[in-house]
């Protein structure tokens, strides 16, 4: 039942929280799926707001390129850490 929380993004976790209240594993995954969905929605919005703020600066292009390099480096570090275990 916990897999439904990830397969159907918004409806699945809500269904599990309403229908399977006593199943601890299903409730855990439903909450985790809702948190993941919130991050997937909020992160691009925060990125958009930051992009508009940086674009208004006179040297916004250089700052944006530097910040993008930092993001790419963070992704690479996360991938290396994931592979290394």
What general outline do the C-alpha atoms trace? elongated
Number of domains: 1
Unreliable parts: none
Strand content: under 5%
Mean pLDDT: 90
| Alpha carbon gyration radius | 19 Å
Number of helices: 4
Q: Biggest β-sheet, characterized? A: none
Classify the secondary structure makeup into a structural class.
mainly alpha
The SSE string, one letter per element, is: HHHH
Overall number of strands: 0
**Helicity level, as a percent range?**
over 70%
How far apart are the termini?
28 Å
Question: Mind explaining what this structure looks like?
Answer:
The chain has 85 residues and is mainly alpha-helical. The chain has one domain (4-84). 82% of the residues lie in helices and 0% in strands. The protein contains 4 helices and no strands. It has helices at 4-7, 11-19, 24-55, 60-84. α2 (11-19) packs antiparallel against α3. The longest helix has 32 residues, at 24-55. It starts with a helix and ends with a helix. The model has no long low-confidence stretch (mean pLDDT 90).
Relevant terms:
single chain; 0% strand; mainly alpha; elongated; 85 residues; 4 helices
